[in-house]
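Per your request, structure below.
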């Protein structure tokens, strides 16, 4: 999960706890009601934090899967290019060998026509 996502989750939790605590502490209720309100707000904030965490985790997973897919595609493309280059190199090597052999043969023919 990205640091930015963690900061968002931490901010939501801390801000929610502070706001809930201030609201509950200044409300004219009995201790039992106040404790119940605090427990309810804590559960609510925990639920929200879990939801935000799951959303951030989902986004991170999707980004990871996309990156892996792109790397696999790049790997396949790179392999294809290497194979193409190898074929081109082999073709050029064969052409060069044929040209060299033809040059040697032409030299021999000329030498046989005009013995020194």
């Amino acid at each position: 999960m990205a640091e930015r996502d963690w900061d968002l989750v931490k901010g939501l939790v801390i801000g929610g706890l502070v706001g809930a605590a201030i609201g509950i502490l200044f409300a004219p209720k009995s201790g039992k009601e106040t404790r119940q309100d605090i427990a309810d707000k804590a559960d609510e904030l925990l639920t929200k934090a879990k939801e935000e965490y799951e959303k951030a985790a989902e986004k991170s997973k999707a980004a990871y899967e996309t990156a892996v897919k792109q790397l696999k595609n790049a790997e396949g493309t790179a392999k294809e290019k290497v194979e193409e280059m190898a074929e081109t190199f082999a073709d050029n090597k064969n052409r060069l060998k044929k040209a060299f052999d033809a040059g040697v043969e032409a030299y021999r023919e000329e030498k046989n026509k005009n013995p020194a």
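The chain has a mean pLDDT of 83.

Regards,
D.
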